[in-house]
User: Fold HNH endonuclease from Bacillus inaquosorum.
Amino acid sequence: MKVLKSLFCSIVLSLIIVASIFSVPVNATTENLIETKKPITYEEQEVLKVNKNGKTESLTRSDRSSVIQKAKQLFNNNIKSEINYNNPLAKQENNVVNVPVVDTKDNNAKTSAKKPSLVTMSYLTTYDPNKKTITTKIAIKNIVGEKPVVIEASNDLYTSNTYSGKYQRVFIHSREFLGANIKVGKSYSKSYSVKSTKFYISRHTTVAGWKGSLPDTSTGQLAPTLANKIGEIYPAIINHHNNKMLPLPSRADLPKVPEKDRVDWDSSKDRGAYIKKYIDTYGNPKWDWSAVDIHHVIPRERGGNNSFNNLYPLPRTMHQQLLNPWWARY
Assistant:
């Protein structure tokens, strides 16, 4: 039975946030641009507690076995080989996904003095394009009061070729903490070798059992992350003028289109038409447009067109040194 759960996501992005209309200035140089291959880590934390009036009791050997058995059974019941994802706020059109900008809030658990026995678990997922790996880590972050008898934990990876819909489990990382291993700082890591561009979801499950109490359980998952064939995540960029995130492709398996079949782009006519519509739609940002590229969210070589929702203004250096290299590894 779920009694207490705290979940927060701390995203360490490789973008340099500056006082600019974009996350990186228009006049950025190679030296102060983002290290695109820097590992990026996502973290979630789960807090579980004693499930019987906050009290623990003496434990016999048979009681201990019973607690462990119940925890294992509850843990196995929460493990899924397939999950579904749907974000009702995301708008999808023509292979493009627009995810709204949301404010991040600190949802750290505020524990009560009346609930003395707690365990906080940390789940980290690291995308490392240098090693072409995704590593999931399971760690005991904190213990308050009496430590549990057993902790069953998993931090698995699921993949899909589409942003929404079914995700299949491709990577299993499960751990059992018993006895002396139940201590703050104890952790396990396991890596998955990236082979192709995919959407990834990391999903974790925790079951903790205390003596004299039914096991407490908690399950959570991250929103989809798009990573290319070397494990480099799709750039998260905000245009602070219109407060729009850079849309992402809705598919990870867009085929390459022969050059003769690609949509033409007139760098004068089509570019001018986009700039005019941008100003008509969002107002005049008073940018130096000569330093701005018009980026195709879905590249023309992957079937992208010149529609307004498939175009996004970017500082030229960012476009050429961040987005183009990412797509080159698609």
Notes: The mean pLDDT is 82. The first helix runs from residue 61 to 77. Helices lie at 61-77, 269-282, 316-328.
